[in-house]
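We store sequence, tokenised fold; for instance:
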Amino acid sequence: MTKGKACRRCEYGWTGPRCTVDALPACRARDGSVDSCVVRKVLDCECVRQCLAAGAFPLHMREPFQAPLCTVPAPSGPPSFYGWSLNAAGGFTAGAATAVGKSSRPRLQFSPARQRQHDVDYEGSMCFNNCSFPRGACLRGGCACKPRYHGAGCAFPKDHLPRDGLAQDAAFFGSSLRVYVYDLPPVVTGRRSWASDWDRQQLFWTAQRFVSALLADRATLTADPEGAHLYVVPYAATNMEGLTQYYEHLRDYISAEQPFFRRRGGKDHVWLCSADHGGDIMQGIRGVRSGIVLAHYFKGVYVARLAPQPVVLAPYLLGATDAAREIYPSWARDLSSSSPERFAEASGREDARRTTTFFFAGNLLLADKVGTYSEGVRQALWHHHHNRSGFKVVSQSATYKSDYLTSQFCAAPLGEGWGIRLTWAIAHGCIPVLFASEVRRFWSGPHTRAGVGGPEGRVSSGLHPVPELFYDEFSVVVEKVYATPIDSER
């Protein structure tokens, strides 16, 4: 992107005003196609050098991860393998040739081929709103927009171009909040997927859902970075190797290539993270902690003293809406009836179905004797209640869904953060039981309008107003565009 202006997004590996400069010629196959710089295979040494020069995330280019290799073509026969590393200046350095044979593969631990498909699925999730198809196409985790469109997710038509003028214009600041979403080159933002990205319930895709919803909010979104009040960095990481380094990588690129970060030292930038303990990790990253952090998990009494305040996002869960739709329509009809007989009949049916008093299934980690995991809550539940009549406290259940449907109370203790069980309990009509903790919960705070199955259900932010940097206004935007996982699913 040209500094301060929106421009056409080039396809992966191409740069320049007209996208005619090939930044990765050594990475291209004979047909002109190119793999991602973070693909799980050993790349040509010159390709590695070009990827690093183009701004790729070095830590996720390592293959094998613990001892990265690259290849140099030989005049005849197989290529030679070389170890590589980064020098003190961050540049590429190739070491001595390394023998790589069948006997060395177990020791080197190359990535399984099946993980490449997980990477492709993750890349697709980063093409927000499917690139507003047919406005654009998803290529290597970024949107290649047609000439008539531009911006993250191809959200803007060509005639919606940035205006001229300064963001400090008094008349502009008198209008509503304007949020700009960065659209950075996928070479820079690309990373490998990890186990949390592969979660079937898409718990760790909350950031992608939020960004897609934000890009559809025409009242808040702006194509003009010069006139924006806040800047969203939409590239989220989860439980993975190099979590902290990934955000440092993005911060360094944005601060070097965009003038807006330096304008207020990052205080007007918004970051997203779905990792366990993600909020706390983000608060430890210089430049990131200065801005607004959206995450599932923040812990500690110090959170109340943070400025700006964090935003706690309820995790998205694939299937929660369908579960709620199966249960609540009949309840809403019967329990809202003015007929005492009909109400009593519906209540009786529900009581008859809820035959289990208390239910919990999940990681118990009984070997943790000091209670580090779950603050000892899950271990205590098992110790005191797993043999009680009417109580089901187990590490896993083959009847997980029906357990929620047939239990009166469902435990929603923290593990490494607050997450799926609170949402599942509400979706299945089971009364959630929470436990006191220093962890800040979603759906708690001054902006709460938690609900089930209707447009009134929103995510709480817990922000305090800092008018000059629009933190409180942004909390309202979060509530407006990101409904609870129970009513936001499409």
Q: What stands out?
A: DSSP finds 16 helices and 19 strands in the chain. The radius of gyration is 25 Å. Residues 35-111 form one domain.
